[in-house]
Hints:
By secondary structure, this protein is an alpha+beta fold. The protein has six domains: about 1-35 and about 165-190, Phenylalanyl-tRNA Synthetase, Chain B, domain 1 (2-Layer Sandwich); about 45-135, CATH 2.40.50.140; about 205-405, Phenylalanyl-trna Synthetase, Chain B, domain 3 (Phenylalanyl-tRNA Synthetase, Chain B, domain 3, 3-Layer(bba) Sandwich); about 415-480, 2-Layer Sandwich (Phenylalanyl-tRNA Synthetase, Chain B, domain 1), CATH 3.30.56.10; about 500-700, BirA Bifunctional Protein, domain 2 (2-Layer Sandwich), CATH 3.30.930; about 720-805, Ferrodoxin-fold anticodon-binding domain (Alpha-Beta Plaits, 2-Layer Sandwich). Helix content is about 25%, strand content about 30%. The strands form eleven sheets. A seven-stranded mixed sheet has the order 28-31-32-38-37-36-35, with helices on both faces. Strands 3, 4, 5, 6, 7 and 10 form a six-stranded antiparallel sheet that branches. Strand 3 (about 45-55) and strand 4 (about 65-70) form a beta hairpin. Helix 5 packs antiparallel against helix 8 (about 380-395), helix 6 (about 350-360) runs antiparallel to helix 7 (about 365-370) and helix 18 (about 730-740) crosses helix 19 (about 785-800). The protein is elongated and about 125 Å long.
Amino acid sequence: xxxxxxxxxxxxxxxxxxxxxxxxxxxxxxxxxxxxxxxxxxxxxxxxxxxxxxxxxxxxxxxxxxxxxxxxxxxxxxxxxxxxxxxxxxxxxxxxxxxxxxxxxxxxxxxxxxxxxxxxxxxxxxxxxxxxxxxxxxxxxxxxxxxxxxxxxxxxxxxxxxxxxxxxxxxxxxxxxxxxxxxxxxxxxxxxxxxxxxxxxxxxxxxxxxxxxxxxxxxxxxxxxxxxxxxxxxxxxxxxxxxxxxxxxxxxxxxxxxxxxxxxxxxxxxxxxxxxxxxxxxxxxxxxxxxxxxxxxxxxxxxxxxxxxxxxxxxxxxxxxxxxxxxxxxxxxxxxxxxxxxxxxxxxxxxxxxxxxxxxxxxxxxxxxxxxxxxxxxxxxxxxxxxxxxxxxxxxxxxxxxxxxxxxxxxxxxxxxxxxxxxxxxxxxxxxxxxxxxxxxxxxxxxxxxxxxxxxxxxxxxxxxxxxxxxxxxxxxxxxxxxxxxxxxxxxxxxxxxxxxxxxxxxxxxxxxxxxxxxxxxxxxxxxxxxxxxxxxxxxxxxxxxxxxxxxxxxxxxxxxxxxxxxxxxxxxxxxxxxxxxxxxxxxxxxxxxxxxxxxxxxxxxxxxxxxxxxxxxxxxxxxxxxxxxxxxxxxxxxxxxxxxxxxxxxxxxxxxxxxxxxxxxxxxxxxxxxxxxxxxxxxxxxxxxxxxxxxxxxxxxxxxxxxxxxxxxxxxxxxxxxxxxxxxxxxxxxxxxxxxxxxxxxxxxxxxxxxxxxxxxxxxxxxxxxxxxxxxxxxxxxxxxxxxxxxxxxxxxxxxxxxxx
Length: 806
């Protein structure tokens, strides 16, 4: 909320500078994000009047203007604005002036004629495009004919640019300061003042409002309070300059006098209003109801929305006139032809307003306030003040009385508290007189009942409903810096990680030890990426209100995020990458399940060279087996009593069918490893990449292995080499299992060292060679024993897979 100190000073005396007020307010409990001075950095920008205007002789769109800035001679200024005309009072940047973006204005020549300055638009002196009135959006700014300005004076005070604006970062519970009056109460309490506010003195005609309009609230829970006023003979015209200044200094564009008044009241009271063109209503009655399914509504922003039966609307007999608490409709828009208006002041169901605003992505200043709360006690007064301003600024007549379609109870809450309780909670020694003084500064009525204080909380502070809220108010105004500092008393527990936390941290540590860099990816992604790298068909979880189409679904794998990270780095010429991520995926058994199960996973992705070229070695690109080695080391580091095996798979379409495998531990699937399919990599723009993914929860639950110290063997080992000719369909795992099962108790190692296909090998076959190591830890092995075991291996290979010993 932008708080104008000029506006604030209308309600109370400001004893300190804006900077000091901001510092004090931040300490008191509402942080001031920014101090804005609209005129900062600007100079030599004055009020001028165009006394004469002639077309430029060498241009079809430039004009030569003679501008009076209260100097001895008029300035000649070349201007190309489409709305420039003689007799206008305008903004003039003199030679040497500084305008927005620190741009300096110099004397110059434009197509042969001298220009002694610049006639400015509001944007050129620092105004945001969004607050510039529509009539001046594409041209220079022209002061209203009745504006009391002095030629040659700096423009800053005339445009409200001499103001200092405090940007309050308001927390959700302090929505009472979303209006200037609420902010005035807050600042006044800091300085022990009582703010003074103008109150409406509305003149009405005898014609009753009820004869012109009827309003029906179908369900009191939709609009606990709903009031309207009708005004006739309205003259639509631009607002006076003072009103426009109040609006644009708070980030709102002036539209016309009626619309500007409703926005002004919203900023002043924190209470949204809306004005309808009464003559455009179909019939003489309005309903506050829920929309019909698929009912269409065209809002003031020009967009058409399909409503649901959960959206609150204000409707006549044929059409939706407004989306309650959010935005009015085009059908009843205030235009230059409007003669009769109905102004609405209401308190709507905040939950429905918020959900409707989210559902249609339609957040407005009105919805912000309706969602967070409105002062129930201000509804009637805000409506009367708006009506009074319309009678003054639009020469309208107010019909007699307000229409009260619904009115919530206006009984303020009473909370009982004691000074002893306050001091006990805060650890202070505040006297009862100080406590009563603080409540008085806040505008809370108090009544002593023995030692107990009965505090009547005004309805403008709807955030206060509990004893704890009162204690917080006392602490804020007493001063958080005055609260004593004490160490906590009680038994202290030594912190530490549980076994699950240790396991996850150890997994990350081991990945870093293997040379991988940790990344963190978004848990939200696209439908395609969420469903990728799944062995079985997944039931995905879609977010109800996604930030964008790229963040609609919860991830069911970590690999897609890693590939995005690789793409990001490759695009920046980082080609040798080894990434890993440890995090949760979101899995659902079927679409009927609402809340997905969160499972801890770990995934890695490697691309580029795993070894750079140097004087001794050539560069080595990543391949399936290099990453498989990393996975084996990682699994070994978990120290589980589980046999690790790999099973070739083609079930994951995003992986190369000949370079993909499931990872099994004790025949239980715990993950996969594989090279990204070339077609999928080409689609993403990826280089060759190898990925893996592990289910950490399954691995963690496996039985841990006990490590037993084994001394170095005293007796030498014996090695033998064996080469066999087998069909290409026979896998290394099959051969290794046969050798280990038939090699006897002294076979301690089986090492593959050669695979050959080609010349002298018949088609469809391959030659596979192993180095076998035998060792007896208790005695020296003899050739007889080794040869016997070796022959058993040869026989088993021949019998089980018809291998040919070479």
